[in-house]
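Quick check before the chapter quiz. The format below is the same one you will see on the exam, so make sure you can read both the input and the output lines.
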Amino acid sequence: MRKIMEVFCIVGCLCISCQPWKKEEIGGDQSYTLNSEDLSWNDENAYPTLLSINELLFDPLKDGVDYVEIVNVSDHAVDLSGIYLCNRSAAGVLSAGKVLSQESCLLSPGGYCLLSSDTARVAADYGFPADSLRLQIKSFPSFPNESGCVVLTDRQGVRIDEFPYTKYLHHPLVSVREGIALEKMHPGLPSAKATCWTSAAADAGFGTPGRQNSQYAPWLFSSEYPENRFFASSEIIYPKRLNTDSQWLLYYYFRDGCVANVVILYESSRPCFTLADNLLLGSRGVLKWSGLDNEGQPVPFGRYLVQAQCHTVEGEVFRQYFVVAVLP
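Here is the expected output.
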């Protein structure tokens, strides 16, 4: 008989630390090995193990410039003189890479590095911490405003990380995307997975180069949370404010992955949005709701019930319920 686990959850708001991301957060005092060796680069669940593409501005302000932020997710320093930044065309052709540094330049474990053609301009537009690294690259690769692909390689052209992006990764209610960066919710997440990215928050200046992302979700790799569970970011969202609470986030951590069905109901009875429909999940990740219905229209203000169900390969069924209020 299938084992059924059912939990009713009404959660408080997510508290986001202001501390830089640290390697130690993945697994605490014990080493934590991401299972990336079994994943090909065609798999959107491929986890970064050396350098992670963590933030991208591809549609800058007038007179502004593009930038890419990377994070060292390994347990050792990485010499950036052996790393190249590339783009990939719509036809899949990888451009000639631009070396990040002509001289030896070490990025410490957990360290951030800003890459741009004009790092001073980026710092003026978004601020930049004195203790983070920034590298100015002449002939910066082109990252078009509609869609593109950011690639990191080593000297031999072996891919280290890759992020295929489109403008539609932004929050659905963002109508003017100019000057708004895309942020990954955790440096350890797969860069190729679209649901791991969202718009930088308005109250963080729409970009956080060289520092912890405004949409950072620390508990995705925390040893404090049990496996085989969903976790909600908050019990309220303000879809029109475009801040850190403008989307409702449902994080998950399942030991062996699962197939999920998640439905959002208005007044606890009428389905208004399907967040997951027989969706095959990886072991860790996040689902996002922006306060829209299945037709793409904003839902009425009020309280909503979220029914989340997951089937594992062993035949176990996990059910959880969350309540979220949509506020003006």
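If your answer matched, good. Residues 237 and 245 are 5 Å apart (CA to CA).
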